[in-house]
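Forwarding the complex inputs:
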Amino acid sequence: MNATGFGLLSAMTFLPMLGVILLLIWPAEDVKAIRGVTLVTTFITFILSLFVLIRFTGNTYHFQLLEQVPWMPQMGINYKVGVDGISIWLILLTTFLSFISVLFSSYVKTRVKQYMAFMLLLETTMLGVFISLDLILFYAFFEASLIPMFFLINIWGGERRTYAAVKFFIFTFAGSIFMLVGIIALSQIYRAQFGSLTFDIVKIQSAIAQGSFWVNFVQWQVWIFWAFALAFLVKCPMVPFHTWLPDAHVEAPTAGSVILAGVLLKMGTYGFLRFVLPFFPDVIKDQVLPIMILAVIGIIYGAVVAAVQVDVKKLVAYSSVAHMGFVMLGIFSLTHNGLMGGAMQQLNHGISTGALFLLIGLLYERIHTRMFKDLGGLKAQMPIYAAIFLIVMLSSVGLPTTNGFIGEFLAMLGAFEAAFAGAYGLNIGLSVIAGFGVVLAAVYLLVMFMRTFYGPNENPTNQKLRDLKPWEIVMASSFVLFIFWAGLYPNTFLAPMEKSIGAVRMMAINPVGQRPNWDDVQTEIDADGNLVKVAVRDSFASYTSTELIAPANLHFPAPAPVASRPEVIARR
Amino acid sequence: MDFKLIWLVLGLPVLGFLIQAFFGGRVISRMGAASGRKVMGWLAVLPIAGAFGAAVGITMELAKRAAEDRAVVETLFSWIRIASINVPFEVRIDPLSMTMVLIITGIGALIHLYATGYMAEEKDYSRFFTYMNLFVAFMLVLVLGNNLVLLFIGWEGVGLCSYLLIGFWYKDLANSRAANKAFIVNRIGDWGMTLGMFMIVAMIAGNLGQFQGVEGRYLSYDVVFSSTAIEIFRSNPGITTAIALLLFVGAMGKSAQFPLYIWLPDAMAGPTPVSALIHAATMVTSGVVLLNRCNVIFQLSPVASSVVCVIGAFTALFAALIAFGQTDIKKVLAYSTVSQLGYMFIACGAGAYWAGLFHVTTHAFFKALLFLGSGAVIHAMAHNQDMRNYGNLLKYLKITGWTMVIGWLAISGVAVWTFFGFAGFYSKESILGAAFGNNFASINGVNYGFYSAAVGLLVALLTSLYMTRMTMLTFFGNEERWKLIPAHSHAEHSDHAHHASHAHEHEHDHHGPDVESFFFNEEELALAHAHEDHEHHHELDENHVPHEVPTSMWMPLVILAALSVLGGFVLAQNNVFEYWLYPKGELTILGELEHHPHWHELLVGLSTVAAYGGILIGYLIYRKGLPKSEGWDLSAWNPFRRAAGNQFGYDKSMVDIGVDGGGALANFSWKVLDAKGVDGVVNGLGGISAGIGRAFGAVQSGFVRSYALLMMLGGAGLVGYLVYLLTVAQGGAR
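Prediction (whole assembly, two chains):
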């Protein structure tokens, strides 16, 4: 339970960096070995992340596998990392998609050494984002992840790659500048209250949970909320900050698109879960409505625009806007169902959209076009490819028995519950409109499938197309495995997240004194979602609880009534 | 016997699906087409037949129990389980689910058997049975699931299979388009249904204190329809009506009720066994099953029930009228299905849920028969579906012909007073009797059930009339029309062939320039094309001799014909079907329903007049063959028939609004809002910052870098200001 020095998490995170160093000294002509080294590195990283999963327990909401090493102690900045239910699957998603992307990248022929180095660098930064428990560390990884992606798009991208890369960089960078402001503000408030500087999110959250953080700075809360929210809204992305996404996706090389959709977008929603919900309990309820409206606009707008695209990749890119809208819809319903659905939908989107980009990439490597006018009738030519594509497409549609249904169903149910209860000024109309997004998803995805696979195959190039090679089938099937696993037995994925998600929800909606506290391991979320006091604790996984601190109140977003507000803790 | 046998019922079709999906192609290519197909055909039929056998055993076991004990829940595992909701994978064995299981597996096995013959020359033989077995599996989940989410799995799953099978001959884009239409229109229904489910969860979760032992199973039937839940629904009539209407939207999609019926006629693009199984006997009746399942909610809302009645009656009438303008034999049957489904909803709205399901059952018998028969006719007539090319086929197709005559009499509701009738007579009679005799579906004292039944009586006349038209044109008269302009001939003068090329030039255009192009639907052409996939085909000409279908195909016809004759008679004896589903005194909320109005004899008389009257009128019109006013020359058609031929413009206007309107909106969003709006603002900002940058003399190259610089300067400035403010605040506090 106590923090150690560098350990498993760091090993996993920085192993790809080791690979980068190895690549740098490797001769650039030895392409085969470079591919091999990269592949092995990402594979071992994936294995290490599986070890993380094995050592992880879903029985607590606290951070596990904590590692803490002083970095700039005089400024209160530490290298502090850990994993909880919110980040665990995102870490697995990152290592998995990185491995798959590198596998696919055997199609990359130019400047392989640099390409692979950037891929590995990207993996480290992405993992760093998800394990950081220090705001500065987080910010550093968050920004650093832009750089390899910028180069991946700018060097190995399509025709308008420079425009797309720069646009991608500026949008996300501009957003995160505001977050930096927010981070500094938080640390300054902490210093004002407690006399020392810290960027440790555990300490900050603990102070917020006890009500001693915002007391004299309540009027700042809404501004800092939006500073953080803006960065993550751009990253998600939500309308109207989404226009970088279609360009970046279309121009990025396939592996870049897979990572971009699969992981980089998740940094946005992860940010909401990790920072925005726990940190701004006094104002978040008032900000639910505008964000929900943005989410619903995103759902409809993304779907509507996707329906008229002529480039398959751009269609999938716009569909991301719609799908991420569902994630946000779930998270900001602030109901348990909604948050679980949103968190699940993050993974689903990473897998399903990642798989779609991968499949489109496999086709592109064969015929070097993605335009609908050049496609059609491929089913007869590539039956296995068509079958896998169909399954992935249906998971994106959200068909029951696939992963997509679980996330969308729970997210929409949560949003409906919140609206039905009349919380935060939400209206059922929002849920009704969001639900229509599911209809629209069927429209653009089925039309995409039809225009690619059905009809006569009249393009002479396409008549020579070969179906997937065995290794490609295995690669693509790994996504299919997840799709059905998560669709038929979602508990595998839901259970490890549940405690942390429940805690974050209570941090956001409960009053002082009833909020979970990341720093207080003597509190826990029990199986029914209640916040309880721990009497005896042996480990994260095993404890006995005594008294109830706050009931779960899972379906309604308002907290249970409190007799009296605890007194304001005196400032120094 | 153990009720655990139900897992065999569910598992066998899944097993069949997996065998077909993973081994079908290999077996056929290794064993050779003929014997490989034979093996795979049996491997497709046997799981369904086995499931039927097991289901019979379970049903008999269930029937032995006392009426109030006839509900067994078996749970397999926790599907979705989080603190806030728990959806187990659980099945419910009760009279309703087992009745449907018997229909699905029984009729399903017959249709699978038929399909082994019908599809014998199909290249993608095992792909077809992959989808068919999967369909049966999903359909079983739909009816057996013990919660609404499982029902929803089946609901969307059968929709998927329907989509895959409508577009089975995918090389023709028209088929794929019909498939897309089916899936998307159904999704609109599913949207309503999902919202209905959400509202149920919200209601129950919001009153959790009153329940015991829910454990998050908010959507399980034993919770949703428990007496506690009923009390909650009763005290919130507005919300109950909303839930009922939302669920009904789902039913409208799947069961093809106005305004969402438009997908079903197009769905005829699929192979004929698919039309029989999915689009007549089973899937399209899911809506009726849903209303039976949720009858408690509908019983509590007379408003919703009235809406159900009215929509049902309107659909029955509307579709029956459209049927008069159809010349494609499958289209006639498709509209007839829509119309009969309307009947079932009249029953449900009027409170006679059992009568709705009774009609589901008898309709499954005779409509499956009619579709399979039409498939045999199409088979015999070189894949030509236009009734204007038919005539005198009874002479050549003895078995098909006579069984279809039985189907025709059954759907017309022919009976000898009340002593004996064909299957359709009894179920129609129960529906009309209940709807006339009760006043449940009424708002402000207006009995909509009564009016719906009146419409239903009219529709009975229309049904028997258009079915007589179909039968007379197909099986009676002479053969002179065979040689006239077959749909797919190469004849230069054929407008049909002309239209074929025309339609393909305008693939993205749903509306051609003239009335013909509505009438000769793309799907019709699709089927004309579809036979290209069959290895052998011959042209329809003067020398054509239709052949009777092989045993595997006529056997199901004979069995279904027997059921169409006797099924209704047997099930109506002593109300056995009604009391099996709803034991006497168990319709909790409404109390006992009347079976008939007090003028029962008059009603029977009127029904008889409607059935025989339609046949008589039809005979008089069509006894000399095809009238000139219904021939190939559309300008000779009377305005009503022409309007009916293109669905009174309804489908076209919906598609126009949806496709053109939606497309325009989407293009506007993309090209104007995205490109000019959002990016415009950003580029504008970039321009401003570039200006500032130039003023500082710091930047030379374009917007982007300067924009970044400005952002950073701005950000840094903001940080500095913030730090300053905080320091001040801190200092001030000290």
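The longest strand of chain B covers residues 72-82.
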